[in-house]
UniProtKB/TrEMBL annotation, chain A:
A GO cellular component entry from the record: ATP-binding cassette (ABC) transporter complex
Source species of the chain: Asanoa hainanensis
InterPro entries hit by this protein: ABC2_TM (IPR013525), ABC_2_transport (IPR000412), Nod_factor_ABC_transporter (IPR051784)
Entry keyword annotation includes Iron: no
Boundaries of every ABC-2 type transporter transmembrane domain copy: 9-214
Pfam families the UniProt entry points to: ABC2_membrane (PF01061)
GO aspect biological process, one term: response to antibiotic
Domain of life (superkingdom): Bacteria
TM region(s), chain numbering: 48-70, 97-123, 135-157, 169-188, 234-252
Cellular location(s): Membrane
Protein name: ABC-2 type transport system permease protein
A Gene Ontology molecular function term of the record: ABC-type transporter activity
Keywords from the named record: Antibiotic resistance, Membrane, Transmembrane, Transmembrane helix
TrEMBL record, chain B:
Annotated organism of origin: Asanoa hainanensis
GO biological process terms on file: response to antibiotic
One MF annotation (Gene Ontology) recorded for this entry: ATP hydrolysis activity
Subcellular location: Cell membrane
Protein name per the record: ABC-2 type transport system ATP-binding protein
Length: 276, 281
C-alpha cells in the first residue's frame, strides 16, 4: 500500500520535473518532431504500391514504443551511479516505490513522445487509416503490450550493464536490431537469415502490429506471408513480457543488494577524478 | 536495553580478512563512535549493521533483528545518513523530505524538521543548489525523518570546514535517539560520543568512555610545576589528589602549575602503536 502510494507520487513528481526543465522538454519535442520530418520526407517515395512515408509512421511508432526499454535501462544505471537506488534501499518500501516511480516516469515520458510524433504525423502523412475507434483501441492496446513486453527488459539491461559506458555500448546492437526489424525498410526485402533474427525481437512485432492498425488492409501485401499475423504478434510479445517479468525482479533485487555507501562513494571519487 | 549487539563478526573478501572478531554492544540512547585509522574496517562494520553487507561469520542484531533479514518494519526504525552526491538533484528540499516522510508510519513533518536542521530558508531550493554543508544537513534530515530508534552515520564530517563541522556536531548532539557513527577524527569522537570503540586492522582494540579509555591505557596524568627556580614533572593517575598534597606541602611557593590529563589522542596513538608492534611481532 505504502509502496503503491509513494511510488505513484514519486512518478508524478519525476514526470513534472522531466517536463518542466528546458533541456529535457527540448528532447521530448526534438526527436518525435525529427521523425515526423523523416516520415513527411518519405511520403513521395514508393515501395510497391505504397508510400514509404505511410509505411514508416506506424513502424517508427512501434520502434519508439520499444525504446522505452533503453531509456529505462539508462535511468536505472544513472540512479545506481548517483546513489538514488541506495537511498531507496535504505527506505522502508523504498525499492518497489522506486520501481513504480521510475516506470511511471519512463512510461509517461514515452507516451508523451509518441503523442508528439503521432498527432502531426497522422495529419501530414497521407495513406494512414486514422478514422475508426477500432484503430485507436488497437494502438492503445498494443502500446500497453509494448510496455509490458519491453520495460522489464529495460530493468534487466539496466542491471546487467551497470555503467554509463556499458550503456553506450549497448545502443549499438540495439540500433542494429532496429535496422533489421522492418522499421525503415520492409523486412520482406531483406535476406532470409536477417529476417529470422529480426523476428526474434519485439521491435519487428511492434512495428508490424502498428502497421496492421494504421495501414489500409491492402498494405498487407508488403508483409511476410501477406499476413498481419495478429496471433503471432500477441504471442511473441507475450513471451517477451512473461520472460521479462520473471527475470526483472530477480536481477533488480540482486543489483540493489550489492549497493552500499562505500560503492557509491567510490563511484563519486572516480567521477570527481575524471572531472578534476 | 541493547539496541546493537555485535558478536564475533568476521568479514572476508576473497583471501583478505578485513574484520576479525568484532564484538561490541550499544544500549538505547547511547551515542557511540567507532574510531580508527583508514582501512581499519569502520565502513565495513557500519554497512553490515545497516544491512547492506552480510558478514562472513558471527552473529549480530540491530533492534533485535539480523539486519540481513530486516523487513520494511525494521527498516522504518533504522535511520541511515547517506552521503549524498547528486541523487535527487532536481527535487526541492522540502518536497523531497515531504515525499520520504510518506514511507514511514510516524514521520517527523517536513517543516519542523527543516527548521531543526537549519534549512528552512532552502525549502524551495533544488537539492543540487545546496552547499556541501547544507547538503549534509539534508542527509541528516533524511536519516531522521522516520524518527528512527537507531541512527547510523558513516564519516559524517569528512571534507567539512571547521564551521560546518561545529554546526553538524551541535545538530547530532541534539538528536534524541541511539547513534552509531564512524570517524577517524578524535576530537569529533570525544565531542559527540558517550562511548568509543576503537577499531584497528579489523579488531576492536578498546571500548569505553573517552575518560575511562584515557585512564585505562595511558594511565597517568602529567603534572608540571616550578618550585624555588627548579622545574618538576610527575606522572600520576590521581592528578587532583597529587596537586592537593603539593599545595599542602609547599603552599604559595608553587608556581607555573600545569596539569595535563591523559588525553584520548595519547590513548589512540598508544593503541594503534601497540597494534602495529603486535602485527610486526
Amino acid at each position: 500500500m505504502i509502496a503503491l502510494r509513494s511510488g505513484w507520487r514519486r512518478g508524478l513528481i519525476l514526470l513534472r520535473q522531466s517536463f518542466s526543465n528546458g533541456p529535457e522538454l527540448f528532447s521530448h519535442l526534438l526527436w518525435p518532431l525529427l521523425m515526423v520530418g523523416a516520415a513527411v520526407a518519405l511520403r513521395g517515395r514508393d515501395f510497391g504500391a505504397f508510400s514509404l512515408g505511410a509505411l514508416a509512421v506506424p513502424s517508427i511508432l512501434g520502434m519508439n514504443a520499444a525504446f522505452g526499454m533503453v531509456s529505462l535501462s539508462q535511468q536505472l544505471t544513472a540512479d545506481r551511479e548517483d546513489g538514488t537506488l541506495l537511498r531507496a534501499r535504505a527506505t522502508p518500501h523504498g525499492l518497489p516505490a522506486y520501481l513504480i516511480g521510475t516506470l511511471l516516469l519512463v512510461g509517461g515520458g514515452l507516451l508523451a513522445d509518441l503523442a508528439v510524433f503521432l498527432v502531426p504525423a497522422a495529419l501530414l502523412v497521407p495513406g494512414l487509416v486514422t478514422g475508426g475507434a477500432g484503430t485507436w483501441l488497437t494502438v492503445v492496446g498494443l502500446l500497453a503490450l509494448a510496455m509490458v513486453a519491453t520495460l522489464p527488459l529495460g530493468v534487466v539491461l539496466g542491471s546487467a550493464f551497470g555503467t554509463a559506458r556499458a550503456q553506450s555500448l549497448l545502443t549499438l546492437p540495439i540500433l542494429g536490431l532496429v535496422g533489421i526489424s522492418g522499421i525503415f525498410y520492409p523486412l520482406a526485402a531483406l535476406p532470409g537469415w536477417l529476417q529470422a533474427i529480426g523476428q526474434v525481437f519485439p521491435f519487428y512485432w511492434l512495428g508490424l502490429g502498428m502497421r496492421a492498425a494504421l495501414l489500409p488492409d491492402a498494405a498487407v501485401a508488403v508483409e511476410l506471408g501477406d499476413s498481419w499475423r495478429h496471433a503471432e504478434t500477441v504471442g511473441v510479445l507475450a513471451v517477451w513480457a512473461v520472460a521479462g517479468l520473471l527475470v526483472a525482479p530477480v536481477v533488480l533485487r540482486r543489483m540493489a543488494r550489492r549497493e552500499s555507501g562505500s560503492l557509491v562513494a567510490a563511484r563519486r571519487d572516480r567521477a570527481l577524478r575524471r572531472v578534476g | 536495553m541493547t539496541v546493537i549487539d555485535v558478536d564475533g563478526i568476521r568479514m572476508r573478501y576473497g583471501p583478505v580478512e578485513v574484520l576479525h572478531d568484532v564484538t561490541f554492544r550499544v544500549g538505547a540512547g547511547e551515542t557511540v563512535a567507532v574510531l580508527g585509522p583508514n582501512g581499519a574496517g569502520k565502513t565495513t562494520t557500519i554497512e553490515i549493521l545497516e544491512g547492506f553487507r552480510r558478514p562472513s561469520a558471527g552473529r549480530l542484531t540491530v533492534l533485535g533483528t539480523d539486519p540481513a533479514r530486516g523487513d520494511d518494519a525494521w527498516r522504518a526504525r533504522v535511520g541511515i545518513v547517506l552521503q549524498s552526491w547528486r541523487d535527487h538533484g532536481r527535487w526541492r528540499v522540502g518536497e523531497l523530505l515531504d515525499h520520504l516522510a510518506g514511507y514511514y508510519p510516524r514521520p517527523w513533518p517536513a517543516v519542523p524538521l527543516l527548521a531543526a536542521v537549519g534549512l528552512t530558508g532552502q525549502a524551495d531550493q533544488q537539492v543540487r543548489t545546496l552547499s556541501g554543508g547544507q547538503r549534509r544537513r539534508l542527509d541528516v534530515a533524511i536519516g531522521v525523518v522516520g524518527r528512527p530508534d537507531v541512527l547510523f552515520l558513516d564519516e559524517p564530517t569528512a571534507g567539512f570546514d571547521p564551521v560546518a563541522r561545529r554546526e553538524f556536531h551541535d545538530l547530532v548532539a541534539g538528536l534524541d535517539t541511539t547513534v552509531l557513527l564512524t570517524t577517524h577524527d578524535l576530537e569529533e569522537a570525544e565531542r559527540l560520543a558517550d562511548r568509543i570503540v576503537i577499531l584497528d586492522r579489523g579488531r576492536v582494540v578498546a571500548d569505553g568512555t573517552p575518560a575511562a579509555l584515557a585512564h585505562e591505557i595511558v594511565g597517568a596524568d602529567e603534572v608540571r610545576w616550578r618550585l624555588g627556580g627548579r622545574r618538576f614533572q610527575e606522572s600520576t593517575p590521581d592528578s587532583t589528589g597529587f596537586v592537593r598534597e603539593l599545595f599542602a606541602a609547599h603552599g604559595s611557593a608553587i608556581a607555573e602549575l600545569e596539569v595535563h590529563r591523559a588525553s584520548l589522542e595519547q590513548t589512540y596513538l598508544t593503541l594503534v602503536r601497540h597494534a602495529e608492534t603486535e602485527v610486526a611481532a
